[in-house]
Amino acid sequence: MDALFLNQLFNGASLASLYLLAALGLALSFGLMRVINMAHGEMLMLGGYLAWMTLLVVPGALGIILAIPVAFVGAAAMGGFIQSTLIRRLSARPLDTLLATWGVSLILQQGARDLFGAVGVEVRAPEWLTGSFVAFGVTLPSARLFIILIAALVLGGLALLLLKTRIGLLVRAVNQDRMMASASGIDVKRVDFAIFCLGSGVAGLAGVMLALLGPVTPNVGQSYIIPAFLVVVMGGLGSIVGTTASAIILGLFAALAQIFVDVSVAQMLLLVFVILFIQVRPQGVIAVKTRQLDA
Amino acid sequence: MPDLSRLDPLKPVLPWLLLALGLVAPFALSAYDLNLLARFMAMGILALGLVLIWGHGGILSLGQGVFFGLGGYAIALHMKLADLPSGEIPDFMVWSGRDSLPFWWIPFSSPAFTIAAILIVPTLVGALFSWAVFHRRVGGTYFALITQALALAFSTLIISRQDVTGGFNGLTDFYSVFGFGLSSPGTGSGLYWVTLVVLCIAFVALRWLLASRFGILLRAARDGENRVRFLGYSPTPFKVVAFAIAAMLAGIGGALFTLHAGVVSPALIGVVPSIEMVVWVAIGGRYSLAGAIVGALLVNLARDAVSSAFPELWLYLMGVLFIFVVTLLPRGLAGLVQGKAA
């Protein structure tokens, strides 16, 4: 195995981590409400700008640690606002939700352009994130290792939340059978709201990671959100394991394809790969079993 | 919704009104305004296809720009070649360091091949793409997301292949089409009439199709896909044919648009323009053919008026329009008129 391959393997792992952080919120809400928030990419953007602002106030190593909760809370609040004002009203019309939230996405992007300028702002990462390690003849930038670590922590935290807490129990119940959950006294709307906030918060956190890799621009979310949509398509309805597997597959595929072709062809191949994949497994990598006819 | 007449509130009047306006326009408008109107009418042809798939088929495509672009680039390739002295290659290829035409450009020097390509390529791509997704019973939100990825992949591919596609700037500087000089005033109004005729044919054909058994089954598949299966029909062929027709209309619209606008570029066919196409139809009324044409005309007129003066305001306005129409006016302007009439 040559260095280029190992290098792309590592890049693929960090790309997969970003896809995962961007897609987790989408997949969670899609499993519960069957709606996709097209403004989810702007939660990444918001997280990036919040990280930048946090570092303006608190520079240095502490700043980036502080930026993570700030971005999480900020994006979660924005997500909660969008959910309660717009998405909740459209809950029975998933395709209309796509369009309405796209409108939100346009407004947020243009708002960011007016507030922060079209050029984008640079987040200066602390020194311990700008260095790199050398292993197996491959240079591993610390920032990318940090991203993989954060994604793993988020995934672990989410798994604990879903499997070990009462909130997680409620979420799984609504995920499996919304009507029965509602009939047995679960406030499904509150569960929807909580999960939407959580998912948006995770996207905001992903925005902090993006800020470590490059400048934060008003449309920084757009370059990650379409692959994240594909991750959701391929992951399978309502399954976190499926979403994770699909993020890893697509992240590695995108990075490894770039050994042979340029970025734009790799993007086309990614789409072809997903279409071929659904020929084999239209239900996604892992799908929660359901007896509903129109799942 | 079996009764189609209820879906088109102004059914008896509006199409005739539009036709009358279309017939009068060449005598009332300046050459510049007529050209603008013709562009919007070409977009209206695409909008008709969206009524078929989105309004009546429940298939949301966020990638119609791809088919619009396939038609537009097909005619653009032809015009680029037609203007060249024999043996030369387009200037942007020279600048990119190429010394020969790519093989897939060569057949476009034939007008017959070009027209066939405009009609067939988008249709075929649309049919294959939608079949690959629909026959595995993947649809709804998933399909919308996949079409958006298609729009992104297509436009990035064009941008990155600068040497054979003209890249980000697209293809422009056309002088003649099928032997007619584009700068002569007769060609401009001639192209307008062609566009009007195509728009009318598409309108009448779709009206017939939507009222036929095919239209009934398409709406049935939209409202209860599994019920249609239980009744012994496979919804997939209906959805694929509808999508292919919409792709063909988008391709024709794209070719005509390119003739009127004199340019085709990734900025006209990417992710954002593709979703804007849906908003024309959302505003006009997704169930109404005439409404979709009105929507395409109105949104583009407004865009033209607003975005030249306040470009940043247009994006806010678009965003608000999206939210407003979808939440409060799901039937668009056509539904509004119906509400008043009822």
Automatic annotation (TrEMBL), chain A:
GO terms for cellular component: plasma membrane. Keywords: Amino-acid transport, Cell membrane, Membrane, Transmembrane, Transmembrane helix, Transport. The keyword Transmembrane applies. It is a multi-pass membrane protein. The chain crosses the membrane at residues 16-37, 49-82, 143-163, 193-213, 225-252, 259-280. GO terms for molecular function: transmembrane transporter activity. One of its GO terms (biological process) is amino acid transport. The keyword Cell membrane applies. It is found in: Cell membrane. It holds the Pfam family BPD_transp_2. Belongs to the binding-protein-dependent transport system permease family. LivHM subfamily. This is ABC transporter permease. It comes from Sphingobium cupriresistens LL01.
UniProtKB/TrEMBL annotation, chain B:
The keyword Transmembrane applies. It is a multi-pass membrane protein. It comes from the Bacteria. The keyword Transmembrane applies. It holds the Pfam family BPD_transp_2. GO terms for molecular function: branched-chain amino acid transmembrane transporter activity. The chain crosses the membrane at residues 12-30, 36-55, 102-129, 141-159, 190-210, 230-257, 277-301, 313-333. InterPro entries: ABC_transp_permease (IPR001851), ABC_transptr_urea_perm_UrtC (IPR017778), LivM-like (IPR043428). This is Urea ABC transporter permease subunit UrtC. One of its GO terms (cellular component) is plasma membrane. Keywords: Cell membrane, Membrane, Transmembrane, Transmembrane helix. It is found in: Cell membrane. It comes from Sphingobium cupriresistens.
